[in-house]
Amino acid sequence: MSAVSGRASHPLLFAALFWLVGCTQPSAQQGDEAAAQAASPEPDAGVVLIEGACVFDGERDLGIVSMLLRDGRIEAIGPDVESVPEDARRVDYSGRYLVPGLVSNHAHVANTEGTEHGDRFYTRGNVIRDLRRFQALGVTTVTALGLNGDVFHALRDEVNADPSLGASLLGAGGGIGVADGAPPATNMGLEHDPALRPATPDEAREAVRRQAEAGIDIVKLWVDDLGGEAPIMRPDIYRAAIEEAHALGLLVAAHIHDLGPAKDLVDAGIDVIAHGVRDRPVDAALVAAMRGRGTWYMPTVQIDEANYLYAEQPGLIEQEPALRAALPQAVRAQFEEAGWRAQQLAGDGIAKAKAAVQTNLANLRTLHEAGVRIGFGTDSGALPHRVIGFAEHRELELMTQAGFTPRQALTTATRDAATLLGLDDRGTLAPGKRADFVVLGADPLSDIRNTRRIEAVWQAGRQVSGAIGDVAVD
Ligand SMILES: [Zn+2]
């Protein structure tokens, strides 16, 4: 991140000055001060002046600016913030880099416990546990895209009123699937099956109405034959569900795996394709249809990578402080077990997962270059190895493998992901927006992996989490 972008005159002079005072290599003293601040979260939002940091606002590199926060929102942002109240608390982040809190469009909460998964884990305590994990890793808004239990609705409003309970939560309720099909009840451990599984278009409309009345934020459909192993949702059913949802003013996101269903869903007016197309290259007709309709595409490249990444690279746990911070102890112990790793890598599943990642990356590149709107999600939290919080940082890195610049990847995961959800109060750092941001120890615009170097997380104007090494998710 350059300290001088947007400055019209004397760029070299400004470069020299700012080089000295801020964007790189903080002095030891500055580092210690910031670390001390990071270790003591401030419970009360109040009025705060954030100073000295290089700020990426979700769209642009602003260079070194100050941000005045009041009552959880950004009141002013710029190189010279005026009218700072005498009693404003000042926080010096010299040498640090600020980015908006990440916004996930596709994740799950309270679907896991240690190395197990299933709907029996959907409890109030586990929802909060997972939202705190997301938050500690810099994801300050989470869309729980299906498989939510009944406790979701009451809890969402409570969580959204209190940032100390974790990331802001939106969700799709249980979601809408197919009898004896996706989401697979046995594989997903759905003993109480939160998904509705309509058999007729009328039942599909009724399912949407029921979920709308319960207060969902977005409708989730599963349209996948699970590799030819299961019945797929019929077009008349998803068309009825989409029509009903739109009549009620709700967005609809569809789980897909293959090109065929993706194309027909786009034709049916789906708003969000919630996974990448992984069976074959996308074609010109899909590209044109998605561009023409403004359909969102969420690649979730990490979903398949997670099947082999940790088994193939056990050294990641040592190399990646953010992974250590994100891993529940039981899952870490599993990743460190040679027998488990060998079992994961046996069979043909890994070759398929790798092929899916390559197809997904190639399709993402095609769609992004064509100007299709890209959302941000990973499916983290659905299964234990889809590691909450870390999956999101990997996804950013994978996006750069598909041709995104670090800036484009970050814009997708902040501004664009908020736009997908229709949230105009977040996703960028600007006057009037929520003060949700992540404090980084290194420049994410020069290396996207620096999004993991988290020194603090702020949500709704208060520091809610500290440096990554101090975070314990268990
Ligand atoms: Zn999912």
Automatic annotation (TrEMBL):
Domain Amidohydrolase-related: 97-464
Gene3D superfamilies: Metal-dependent hydrolases, Urease, subunit C, domain 1
Pfam family, one: Amidohydro_1
Alphabetized PROSITE patterns for the sequence: PROKAR_LIPOPROTEIN (PS51257)
Record GO terms (molecular function): hydrolase activity, acting on carbon-nitrogen (but not peptide) bonds
Keyword entries, A-Z: Hydrolase
Superkingdom, taxonomy of origin: Bacteria
Protein name, as recorded: Amidohydrolase family protein
Biological source species: Luteimonas aestuarii
